[in-house]
Amino acid sequence: MKKGLKIILLIVLITGIGLISYILINNKIKTSKMEKAVSIPFLLLMPDDFRNPEISLKYGYKGYIEIGLLDDSVFNKMEDKSIIPLKNGDEVNVEYKNILYFKRGDEVNIPLSLHFVSHVNKEIDKVGVILDTMKEVRGERLISTKGYGITDENGNVIKRGEALINELISYEPNYLVLKDGETKNIVMKIKIPKDFPPVIHFQIDPMGIYADIDEEIAVFQNETIDKMWEVVIND
User: How far apart are CA 165 and CA 92, in angstroms?
Assistant: First the structure.
């Protein structure tokens, strides 16, 4: 009886270890795929961690590019998790407080700053910066889409599609060089085409900013950017 119990416990232990190993390995694979898709690695590092040479180098980052918001006057301010009524009678739920209102055909310019710091300035004393949401960088590109549906007069969906948010964003300039410790200003342009699909709400941020270097350089938004911005199209 005791021998049988020991065998059962051993099987349970081996199965448990195997399950834990599978979860860890599977999670690592998923994380690796996600890391390749974004300019900021999927690690639980905060801006201060990237600024700290010891922590940053520990995770393999030899420097960082910090994105900052210079002027937030282009945004309308709302309380977090608000409901916004639209002219057509619809409502949108927003999660963040910075709102950009558009009509189709509108364009807005958002002033940003880029600041570069090298943790190994004898090795890397400057870095090129690519600012292009449509460009593949080292074989990878972050894609942001928003799904929509077109309905008939009875409310039946007759067509579904996806709007590519990347296409709405451009930068001026779209390439620059930063020396160690240098800050330069850029302009992020968001334009909603007149023929933009029937999407009324999505979230956006300064995407498509990459270090033009094979070394690992972290790219992150600093505390002046409140996570994401809400775009509401209110024709």
Answer: 18
Q: Enumerate residues 6+ apart whose C-beta is below 8 A from 116.
A: 63, 64, 65, 66, 126, 127, 129, 178, 179, 180, 181, 182, 183
Would you list the DSSP string of 188-223?
Answer: EEEE--TT--S--EEEE-S--EEESSSS-EEEEE-T
Looking at per-residue pLDDT, the higher value among 14 and 126 belongs to 126
CB neighbour list of residue 106: distance below 8 Å, 6 or more residues apart: 191, 192
pLDDT in tens, 31-74: 333 333 334 444 578 999 999 999 999 999 999 999 999 999 99
Quickly count: other Cβ atoms within 10 Å of residue 27's Cβ.
10
The answer to whether residue 121 scores a pLDDT higher than 70 is yes
List C-alpha distances in Å: 201 to 7, 58, 63, 207, 229: 58, 40, 35, 17, 11
User: pTM (2 decimals)?
Assistant: 0.77
Query: Which string of b and e fits 163-186 if b means at least 16 CB within 10 Å?
Result: bebbebbbbeeeebebebeeeeeb
- 12, with CB counted inside 10 A (0-12, 13-18, 19+), is exposed
